[in-house]
């Protein structure tokens, strides 16, 4: 994250540990501008929370970390590092003694939290009822169970009483003087009564054990239920506080005067740093935001562009590096790498005029808290959301938007080299994310059997067909055939995880691309999409993860890395890097760019092992030719911010077409 050694320490007062609650002042690292800031920390019920002042405990919590899953580390005499999942707190005490008190309290609280979690692990799958009717039904069921247990206990007592009376009566009969035959019968009855008594005793013991076990588990369930109710109440109060703070911040922002803009004469080279500095200075207080460690998973290679003299010498000596020795390198041919996408298909005069506008997006103010407070504990995919959260497209149409830059595949189909083709396929895989940068609205869920057909054979030579093939879990199949030498198909299932502050969307399924002339068959999978600020703040989307593209025929590969956004990273946001290698693992091309703007490729002349990176790993240094543009995003249409930030293709997806299936998304009823 940062250098925790920065900043100064000061006094921190805390009560002696031993009680369930432990409070005191600590210094928390915030950012490079403000360093360590004094904060009031409260340790209670296995949770460590902090506030700007003691007075804030009544209304505003700045952050909380769960000690049950946290890792506690001590860096030096006064520092404490707490990490849980993706969250890390760098703390500093005033003295070493004070640090040790806090560490002791944290360790004890962590051990207690783990014990509580283990005790309740058997009940973790139970859901608390979310309505009054569910609570009434549960209480009624508990009353019936208690009544049945009382009946069982009464029967237990009656069996024991009547069994003892029967045994006494039979014993008295044996003592009477009766004929021999009668005595034998009485003896047989007595033996049977003895067997009945033994059996009854066994049943009575089993019933007693069951009663004891039921009473024990009943108390345990009641404790777990009470704990879940308290947790839900706490969560509701926290979210309500966040919603109120969000509304107050919005009002304050509307009422505040407009900030003075940066002087236009500021050099463009320093623009990014100036904007970041300006943003940090304008913020009210660094403690309002959760800060995370900087991402250390930087690319495992360094690219160095060769000089013109070096390129000339290598060209004269026929050193073609890893490209296979072809003297006429495609990366040096400007006609193969123009300044814009290969728009040969778009230059054709279309047979019909497509629309360039859709009705403006309605501006409705929505209170997310009013929706979420009644859905706590429910599965995210089953939460009913207002239609205003959707954009006027279905998920099938969003899949069809992957073809926005189909000309990359048209160009790849004409490539003689499979490595050059791989570069263009990689650029196409990245281009499908370019439309998501501003698209925070949710597409409509298709119905089971719903289809969407996109026929662009007259303009661009391809025809696309999507179908919703499963409803739970939702899954779609997509198939595209192009008259320009390629076929693409994919099957996509969406898995999502709600993390409180953000939502992770993980597409499951493979994408296949086959080129007719060469027989090359490429396979890859999509990366994880993350929607941030679900509850409070402005929604924004990030893409992160790795894509491996494999040519099934030649076994050539392309490794693409989507770097997650980090506040502390020096790299450009939304960065994508990659390496194209042959079947033997030798690198031939380096890819670089961003998933929302452009992708460039550079041919590798030679490689060498460089110095160690921040993690101690040795990085590879690639000497390359000058990079050439593979793909660049088209500018959005005019007034796009009022049209859901739709691209030129997305604006046409709801146009009425002739001869489409009756299950097409365009024909889906809008009400009912």
Brief sketch in words of this structure:
With 672 residues, the chain is α+β, with helices and mostly antiparallel strands.
The shape, in one word, is extended
Q: Kindly state the percentage of residues in helix.
A: 25-40%
Biggest sheet: strands side by side, in what order?
4-3-2-1-7-6-5
Q: What's the total number of strands?
A: 25
Q: How large is the count of helical segments?
A: 9
What is the radius of gyration? Answer: 35 Å
Would you tell me the overall average pLDDT? 76
The percent range for strand residues is: 25-35%
Low-confidence blocks of residues: 1-18, 122-131, 258-297, 311-329, 331-340, 342-350
Which structural class should the secondary elements be placed in? alpha+beta
Summarize the main sheet.
Answer: 7 strands, antiparallel
Distance from N terminus to C terminus (CA atoms, Å) equals 52 Å
Domain PH: 19-111
GO biological process, one term: lipid transport
Biased composition (Acidic residues): 120-129, 282-291
GO molecular function, one term: cholesterol binding
